[in-house]
User: What shape does this take?
Amino acid sequence: MAVRLLRRTRDYVIRMPKDATVVAACEQVRCENWRYGWDTILDERTPEGRDAAAWIRRTSGAGRTYRELPGAADGGLTIFRFEPYQRCFAEHRTKPARWLVAAGTVRQHADMHDWIEDLDEHAGRLKEQLERG
Assistant: This one.
């Protein structure tokens, strides 16, 4: 019985620009606030805290979904609990990486997760072929 081995080679390449950064969305950089949600705690005894709380209430934090938990034990503190999977208040910057797989032709993956998944699947196929002999 003849066994055909996978003879195609694949190169897994990450291309990063030298000093270019771009503004990125929370989802692109896997921001923890985006993934898990976050609390914004404001002291409404101060003018800054009152202004920030009023802005969140007036604009829903620019369309963000949240719950207000007033009256913390310290008195004057208000907790705004923001739900996951929405943009946080930070501005993220990232280097625009290119996730490439060269196997005859060059394919570009959308993100690191897809690139790693491709690599794992390919390594799994190679392992199966080696085990079969």
